[in-house]
Amino acid sequence: MKIYISWSGERSKSVARILRQFISTAFQNVEIFFSVDDIVMGENWIEEASRRLTESDVGILCITSDNIDNPWISFEAGALYSRGKVLIPVLLDLSSADLYTPLANFQSISLTRSGVQSILELLNNQLENPQNPEYINKVFNKLWSAIEQEIDLILPAVVEYNTESSQPELRSERELLYELLERVKNLELKASQSE
User: Fold this and answer.
1) Phi-psi region of 42 (alpha: psi -120 to 50; beta: other; left: phi over 0)
2) Mean pLDDT across 124-148
């Protein structure tokens, strides 16, 4: 199974790194794409990210209050969804009610104990040969306290961000959808040209 972890911004990147470490510890037979570590210097990052998007089976979107309106997150979600992939929006400092279309269309989870455990269970069910659920629970219980400490280090930045003056200016859904459609079309054109 191939997993694509989408992020934008420092806190989102930190969440992505935590999830990558956690998932790779729980499942040795999955391939996880995390652009920070998997795109080498000098490589065309947009082409590599696009290739990985088309190859992935599951997309994990690391959503925070400071990237909720980021067009790149919407683009990656659209590219994965257009290929019928499983999408998991992971929310750090938001609730599902804070999401808007297209992200609101997907069942999201919070970066909590139960949320992270449900990610492992879902990924396990996506495997061709799933692990024993007892094994997954054992791995989760062993690793959770370390993950929780890392999450707690990311959360204090939320208080500084949630002020009127620092809220991003939101674009209309129509603008976002138009941009997303254009990017998906370009991605599909590149994919068909490389075949």
Assistant:
1) left
2) 91
